[in-house]
From TrEMBL:
Residues 13-183 form the Diphosphomevalonate decarboxylase-like N-terminal domain. Belongs to the diphosphomevalonate decarboxylase family. Pathway: Isoprenoid biosynthesis; isopentenyl diphosphate biosynthesis via mevalonate pathway; isopentenyl diphosphate from (R)-mevalonate: step 3/3. This is diphosphomevalonate decarboxylase.
Amino acid sequence: MADDEIHRSSTFAPVNIAVIKYWGKRDTALNLPTNSSLSVTLSQDDLRTHTTASCSLSFAKDELTLNGEQQDISGARTQACLRELRGLRRKVEAKDDGSPKLSGMMLKIASENNFPTAAGLASSAAGFAALVRAIADLYALPSTPAELSRIARQGSGSACRSLFGGYAAWEMGKEKDGSDSMAYE
């Protein structure tokens, strides 16, 4: 594999609007809600985030841009998502010696919203859902949307519901480690 080879994947994620909201968190570090919630996903024709995730040996550090502006990627929530996704990729690499070692490469993530960011339209939900899905696709992870929702939830609680169309339920779960706090269509 050439050092300058770039691996890339792109995806879209929709905005969702809560019908039954979650009211507080039982664990802020894991982003676990005190109650389950229900949302409706809006049409991607109108409101969506487009995210492209790339990795390469030639990248010096992880980077994230949103609407063309460099973002701080060092936050705990973003790092939790990246850590989980890289961990899953390492498992894929351990099972298949021939698979590219993508988990050790730095990421460049570029996201664009087609609606105003931070205007009350759940941009973080669509953003983290798109980030998680784009990296999961880049890493060729054998994960269902429900499994990925557990990771996206760590970035933004509502993001777990933006991995689905139509109505999506986020089950609060009962496990202390949050392993059963996932969304379903």
